[in-house]
Design a protein that fits this description.
Blueprint: H1 3-8, H2 36-54, H3 61-68, H4 72-75, H5 77-100, H6 102-117, H7 126-140, H8 144-154, H9 160-189, H10 191-212, H11 226-237, H12 240-268, H13 276-281, H14 286-294, H15 296-322, H16 328-356, H17 361-423
């Protein structure tokens, strides 16, 4: 953590210091301890609701294109507007969570998002649909950064990667179930009924989340002064490690956003020509992401953070190349590898942000989430544009370039770590 970050965030992060050890006297939650299961389930459900709402139109883009008579690049804005709204508002929402509490902000965000979700089915035009989705994404911005900050404050350090992995796993289940449900419902009753069903599911998740999540025990309200907030943000952006982690999150999400925005168009065309219900079921591969995100802690324990990122990037790249084959089983295997690599890389990078930021954790997480969802918006629009220009090969090309960016940044991190180790003074004997 840079000195600027530490100093600027002292007022903002005014919580009473929490012991940094993982001893039995550490008052924070640990696996098997009081409240841990309720907390894990609550944030898992929050992750389900967030991704189900955020990407509720992604599997339906061919139907939306057909109803409104627009191209894939225009319809993709129903996804990009939601993720872009989240990216723009995640930092302000994180500041509100410092003042009013993580649980309060997460609850309010879900309430507004599910309310907008119930209006989405009645959008009269593509413009109105995009506008509603942008508002929904902005509302959801209170979830990601507040959730990771809550975990960093309430969970013991050695359990943090696993706890965040479970939240990310909820994201994968939400993304999967939302797409599968919308695919089959839309095949019978149209895309409007499908997104309405997702809104109802999100309402149930939001109610259960609020009932289950334990009250925070290690949070103290901070300042909302803009000068303090900007100082905290500048400090985080001055930290080279945090900057690398933000870029990695954005690049991984560029791959993921591009692939899953375009895959529905590819599978509706020859040589596949699949119906909407089957295309929705393709997203069952998200279950692989649930497993890989949950296993991120063990992966880091065996390979280290950079080793885990190399493995995640290599797995994603292999999946991209495999998906080029004109064979449905090979395309599905490619999607499995892309999904496993993405969710593992995301869990590793996001948990590293929470552990690196000693102060202003909500802002550090918010900057990561902002970069992450900017990557999603970029992937959705650039991936769709590349598909329009060069077919699936164009979309894969965008993804491969993004993975190469992840590898290059991780190499730079390895070199920086070696250089820092050489500068360490040798202890006197």
């Amino acid at each position: 953590m840079s000195p600027a970050s530490t100093g600027a965030s002292a007022t903002l992060d005014a919580a009473t210091p929490v012991p940094s050890s993982d001893s039995a006297t550490d008052p924070r939650m640990a696996p098997g301890g009081p409240g841990y299961r309720r907390m894990s389930l609550a944030l898992f459900l929050a992750g389900v609701a967030t991704f189900a709402l955020l990407y509720s139109t992604q599997a339906l883009l061919p139907l939306i294109s057909g109803e409104f008579g627009v191209a894939a690049s225009r319809a993709s804005w129903t996804v990009a507007a939601a993720t872009g709204g989240l990216a723009l508002f995640v930092l302000p929402m994180s500041a509100l969570s410092e003042r009013f509490g993580r649980r309060t902000v997460m609850t309010a965000s879900l309430a507004v998002a599910v309310g907008v979700g119930l209006l989405v089915p009645f959008a009269p035009s593509i413009g109105a649909l995009v506008a509603l989705r942008a508002v929904q994404g902005a509302a959801l911005a209170g979830l990601p950064a507040s959730a990771t900050a809550y975990l960093a404050e309430e969970v013991r350090p050695k359990a943090l990667v696993t706890a965040i992995g479970l939240f990310v796993a909820g994201n994968s289940v939400g993304g999967m179930s939302g797409r599968v449900i919308t695919g089959w419902v839309a095949q019978e009753w149209g895309w409007r009924v499908a997104v309405g069903v997702i809104g109802a599911v999100a309402v149930a998740c939001a109610v259960a989340f609020r009932l289950l999540l334990p009250a925070p025990r290690h949070f103290a309200a901070g300042s909302l002064r803009p000068r303090v907030l900007l100082g905290t943000v500048r400090g985080h952006l001055a930290d080279p490690l945090l900057r690398r982690l933000y870029a990695i999150g954005a690049l991984f999400m560029t791959v993921f956003g591009g692939v899953y925005t375009v895959i529905g168009y590819r599978l509706t065309q020859a040589p596949f020509s699949l119906p909407q219900g089957i295309i929705g079921s393709i997203f069952l591969v998200y279950l692989v992401g649930t497993v890989s995100a949950s296993a991120a802690g063990r992966l880091v324990g065996r390979l280290g953070r950079r080793g885990a990122l190399y493995l995640a990037g290599g797995t994603t790249a292999a999946g991209l190349l495999l998906s080029l084959a004109p064979s449905l089983p090979l395309v599905l295997l490619g999607l499995v590898l892309i999904t496993a690599g993405f969710f593992a890389g995301h869990a590793v990078a996001s948990s590293a942000v929470s552990r690196t930021a000693e102060h202003g954790r909500a802002q550090a997480s918010a900057l990561y989430q902002s970069a992450y969802y900017i990557g999603s918006s970029a992937g959705s629009t650039v991936g769709a544009t590349a598909y329009h220009a060069g077919g699936w090969t164009g979309t894969v090309g965008v993804g491969v370039l993004a993975v190469l960016g992840v590898v290059a940044i991780t190499v730079l991190g390895s070199r920086a770590a070696r250089a820092a180790a050489r500068r360490e003074p040798v202890p006197a004997h």
